[in-house]
Write a structure and sequence with these properties.
With 299 residues, this protein is mainly α. It has one domain (5-297). It has helices spanning 5-20, 23-30, 36-57, 67-92, 97-103, 107-118, 125-143, 151-160, 163-173, 179-201, 208-214, 216-238, 243-250, 253-265, 271-288, and strands at residues 123-124, 296-297. Strands 1-2 form a two-stranded antiparallel sheet. The longest helix has 26 residues, at 67-92. The relative contact order is 0.22. Mean pLDDT is 86; it is low at 292-299.
Length: 299
């Protein structure tokens, strides 16, 4: 039986969450081996190279020229690639993988605030309930028996605050351009700007070529699976559902991060992390469960 448009979108977003769950582990590990913004820039440019090859093979180079979409794609580049990468990668280099994964979930709260102001999407009581459950699950995991937020954690929260603005731009851009074209332009422009920022402000103990060759596997994994495959899945899902439903679904990835951390880093989840895991998936159930009636709220 064929899936409906909404269910197909949910499938894409949940698959994206499974892949993106590797991001906190990759970023925390690799930023201890090389300058954080250089890692962000190198990964982003690597993804641009892969996407360019794809466009050439598929003979879709012409799709890059779309003046009407440029302003929206530049918005995506600024609010999803440049500003958040500087804040999040630097912050992640001074905190844990679990904190990085969980604090990125604050994007949910910023989404409901920003989407309510800048768009006309209707936010239902069911969506709010599901999103709050997901956010509450994140708080439980972050608490973990003791609240302690440092400046690095605050940088990650600040970076997450820009994502909803980028997603609004992405929603507009998807009406005018293909997902691959959007991803390539944002990766090429954003990656070069991040590289310039790194060269100007970061301290290197090795040459750029040494950093890249020594950490090529991590750069490739971040560039291909996180910045290419997962983002293509994200955009395909975003085309089929509301931002306010897509983002909380995508924000289930920290639960998967806990699983990856156990198998890859041998980190055993605590009671609070497991409890948060359950609460997060309860929120997902609220978001994807079809009801006979929903209460519409105007925000």
């Amino acid at each position: 039986m064929a899936l409906s448009k909404g269910r197909t979108g949910e499938f894409f977003i949940m698959t994206e969450a499974l892949l993106y769950a590797l991001f906190p582990i990759l970023i925390v590990h690799t930023t201890k081996l090389m300058p954080p913004i250089l890692f962000a820039a190198s990964s982003t440019l690597f993804s641009a190279l892969v996407l360019f090859v794809y466009l050439v093979v598929k003979k879709q180079i012409r799709t890059l020229y779309n003046p009407k979409a440029f302003k929206y794609i530049l918005g995506v580049t600024l609010f999803i690639v440049i500003i958040p990468s500087v804040l999040i990668y630097f912050g992640a280099s001074h905190t844990s993988g679990v904190n990085t994964a969980i604090l990125l979930q604050t994007e949910i709260l910023f989404t409901f605030l920003i989407v309510g102001v800048f768009t006309r999407e209707r936010i239902t009581l069911k969506k709010i309930s599901g999103a709050l459950l997901v956010a509450f699950g994140a708080v439980i995991i972050l608490y973990n028996g003791d609240f302690s937020v440092n400046s690095a954690d605050l940088l990650i929260i600040a970076g997450a605050a820009f994502y909803p603005l980028g997603n609004i731009c992405a929603k507009k851009a998807l009406e005018l351009a293909t997902p691959v074209a959007i991803l390539f332009i944002r990766a090429f422009v954003g990656g070069n700007i991040l590289l310039l920022i790194s060269l100007l402000f970061e301290n290197y103990t090795l040459s750029v070529s040494h950093y890249i060759s020594d950490n090529f596997l991590f750069l490739a994994a971040n560039g291909v699976f996180i910045y290419c495959v997962s983002k293509l899945l994200w955009y395909e899902g975003l085309k089929r559902m509301d931002i306010t439903k897509a983002i909380p679904l995508g924000m289930t990835y920290p639960a998967f991060s806990l699983v990856y951390a156990y198998f890859l880093l041998r980190e055993i989840p605590t009671f609070y992390q497991l409890l948060g895991f359950i609460v997060i998936f309860s929120g997902v159930f609220f978001l994807i469960k079809k009801g006979k009636k929903t209460i519409e709220l105007t925000i």
